[in-house]
Design brief:
The protein is of the alpha+beta class. The protein has two domains: 6-125, endopeptidase fold (from Nostoc punctiforme); 138-224, Muramoyl-pentapeptide Carboxypeptidase, domain 1 (Orthogonal Bundle), CATH 1.10.101. Helix content is 28%, strand content 17%. Strand 2 (63-67) and strand 3 form a beta hairpin. It starts with 5 loop residues before the first helix and ends with a strand.
């Protein structure tokens, strides 16, 4: 049965001290109560429906991913800054480490975390891992919403809105993050051309007009027009 709470998942993960070498996906899905499907961690990441790409603060109980080698790696977030993982710090050992451990020791690139695994939604992670994500409301400065913008809370809120928009398909999911890169351009372009073409503004996805921002974000956000 799929785990219904982060505490349940973490408690189960903490009960494991040793592991089969190279079987990270098997153990994380077992801790989550999810059956087998994908062959390895990187495939599980690629096929996940809701990704929070690059989000350095995964919620407790979330599967977290790295690229590197042929198969990538998956661990379980114990809190916002630590993960529990197989083959850490040595082969056949399960331990909890600070989030940068895999980058610093394996040279792996952090990918982010997901709300689902092996095609199964993780109940307590739906909607961003909390009942009210910090990106689900707040101030949005329209002049920050343009291609090339980096390290912006306004872009984080834009990406959250796009990820959770029910009319934007998974193929155009930009993931969570704070940079306005090509994935965001493609998601915004899809919204401009296919969801709200009647709203006055650009249609190439590289920026949003004031009317477009107000329409996309709605009443939950405080849109500061440019």
């Amino acid at each position: 049965m799929v785990s219904q709470s982060a505490n349940e998942t973490v408690q189960r993960a903490n009960s494991y001290k040793t592991c089969e070498v190279g079987m990270c996906l098997k153990y994380v899905r077992t801790w989550l109560g999810i059956g087998s499907k994908e062959p390895d961690a990187i495939t599980a990441w690629n096929n996940a429906k809701v990704k929070h790409k690059g989000d350095q603060n995964p919620p407790k109980g979330a599967p977290v991913f790295w690229s590197g080698g042929q198969y990538g790696h998956i661990a379980l977030a114990i809190d916002n800054s630590h993960g529990r993982s197989t083959d850490t710090t040595s082969s056949g050992k399960v331990s909890t480490q600070e989030g940068n451990w895999w980058k610093n020791n394996w040279g792996s690139k952090y990918l982010g975390w997901t709300e689902d695994l092996n095609g199964v939604k993780i109940p307590y992670l739906q909607g961003g891992g909390t009942s009210e994500s910090q990106w689900a409301s707040g101030k949005v400065y329209v002049d920050k919403l343009h291609k090339g913008q980096k390290d912006s809370d306004s872009v984080s809120r834009l990406r959250y809105r796009l990820v959770h928009h029910n009319q934007i398909p998974n193929s155009h999911d930009p993931g969570q993050g704070n940079d306005y890169g090509q994935e965001v351009v493609e998601a915004v372009r899809y919204w401009q051309r296919n969801v709200a073409p009647q709203i006055n503004g650009p249609s190439d996805g590289t920026s949003l007009s004031n009317p477009q921002a107000n329409s996309l974000f709605g009443d939950a956000y405080d849109v500061i027009e440019k």
